[in-house]
Structure prediction request, 94 residues.
Amino acid sequence: MIDDASKAGQRIGLIATFAPTLQTLPGEFPSSVRLKTAYADGALAALDRGDGEAHVQIVVDAALRLVDCTLLHSFNSASHERRRRSLRQPAREF
Prediction:
């Protein structure tokens, strides 16, 4: 995921639904990448209670805080599953 993202853009937004991800994952990106992070607070809890719609809305709200990024990745390590959604348009065009 990191290699793909690094090749696709130099201004990358990383959205996490599990807060500790934002302490560890940014250090794995190459120094040439300008990384901005956003925590989708409450998104994981929404999934836990079965509210997928709320989860998506919280992640979208987090993405909107990353308006100057050319590529966004959402990473959920708590579920032990990597889900990547790459948006090849500026975040402000959501």
Summary: The beta strands are 11-16, 34-39, 71-75. Residues 77-94 have pLDDT under 50 and may be disordered.
